[in-house]
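Sample pair:
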Amino acid sequence: MLRRASFVAFLFLLFLPPAQCPAQETQRYVRYELDGEVSWGRLLGEEIQPIQGDLFQDFRLLSTRVELDRVRLLAPVNPSKVIAVGLNYQSHLGSRAPAEYPGLFAKYPTSIVGPEAPIVRPPESRNLHYEGEMVIVIGRRAKSVPVAGAREYVFGVTAGNDISERDWQSADLQWFRAKGSDSFGPVGPILVTGLDHNDLLLETRVNGEVRQSERTRDLIFDVEEIVSYVSRYVTLYPGDIIFTGTPGSTQAMEPGDVVEVELEGVGILRNTIVQGGNLPD
């Protein structure tokens, strides 16, 4: 595994305007709604510097500023595909041996919600669990990339919560509803570039109680291995995301519970569980 390898300056030169965002400098980006308009911006303390153009292609930073408390933060990405890795920490595997390759499944773009958005427990759900995770955000088109060069395709990371209905997960043919239901993929609040994604503290809390806490250096398959493996089978595009796996154990949540996923350098992704409405007749 290529753990704690040196950062590749070319990545940042490729995606960030050099005069404003130097190579290897950590940058913090948000996607937000203001007066009905959705935009990307660079976060500067309690202000946002709006971006004109595509964050993952050509863009320029505008000279204006928007106060953070005036906007509604959204998921920092709008992916075309959402991939996830299962059983990627030994603490989650328990006594089982790791697999020879990453175990993948897909979530749906419609499962993605942002910080403070409700996680809706469907009316027939009885066993809804959190799974705090680091989420990789792809920055370049990636197809069949080698492990050694995979870091160049990672734009940055954010925090994520792979919401999972355990009863459905064990009962259904596929994890269509167990992992992919609406609101089952909170991500955010910030997309950060320049972090050492292979050594960040990941922590999950429910109602303030710590439920998960581990560093991403304990991933069985690290970021570069994951990106390389996924790209063998599907083409990744800028803005696509990969959930990298959850550590430790998980427990059921109830309506009213507040779940927080904190990723070092990124911040706190906070969402509240709400009960969904009745089933249609």
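Confidence is low (pLDDT under 50) at residues 1-23.
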